[in-house]
Amino acid sequence: MSKLKKTADIFEKAMNAVFTVCGFLAAAFVLIITGFLIVSGIPAIKEIGIIDFLFGTKWASTASPPYYGILPFILSSVFGTMGAIILGVPIGLMCAVFLAKMSGDRSSEIVRSAVDLLSGIPSVVYGLLGMIIIVPCVREIFDLPDGANLFSAIIVLAVMILPSVISVSETAIRAVPKEYEEASLALGATKTETVFKVVIPAAKSGILTAVVLGIGRAIGEAMAVMMVAGNVANMPNLFKSVRFLTTAVASEMSYSSGLQRQALFSIALVLFAFIMAINLVLNLIVKRGSKNE
Description:
Layout: H1 2-48, H2 50-55, E1 59-60, E2 67-68, H3 71-102, H4 105-119, H5 123-141, H6 150-174, H7 178-186, H8 191-202, H9 204-219, H10 223-228, H11 245-252, H12 258-292
Helix pairs in contact: 1-12, 3-6, 3-9, 4-6, 5-6, 6-9, 7-8, 9-12, 11-12
């Protein structure tokens, strides 16, 4: 018996060591990526000048002389992400409410399977469908010469963030204690009033987490956006072709060299800093909301 206990203790210690190593590996990967981007991106920013780089409105990396202003990319990424969140989060939240509180078992199973399938579709397929369906529709509806623009990118991104928003929001809504809902119904509130005035406010921390994941997915997408946004370095306009931070790196990295290549690493550094800042701010909001609850 003591032998078995000794073996179990050794196994327990070994597994604790494995878990510890895996935890530190995850942190190490973040530090390695951060260090690599800083080392690769800072030289170009120093040479170009941080003001000219961040606030310059012209990008012409192959011209003579070249221009390396990324303000159009920054604003396009910000507006595209905001638009996707404005469109996608309400739809995703309503779908999560349907799955958690309104649907029957059969319909819930069908919709949840569709959401799971949606999350598994590759980015290039979203981009392809956007090119075939959304871009021509936007061109015809708004009578434009070209439908590949910021608006088309926003629609595609809004669809792409739905699985994350729906799954996390549904989990948060289901985690709200049943007593809250029962007390509201006992006081005479309707089911819809209970959902919007009791359940959703109680689940706001989880819903904000879903928004964080949606922002991360939208701001970090490259392939689908490249296929539907036009990939032209214009200042952002809803019905003009634009280029995002991600697509700027993806479209030029294969043939870049010298300062151009360093500038692309600098764009990646700026994008990484944006994502880290957004996650930090929203996580602070989530934690503050949890404490207030």
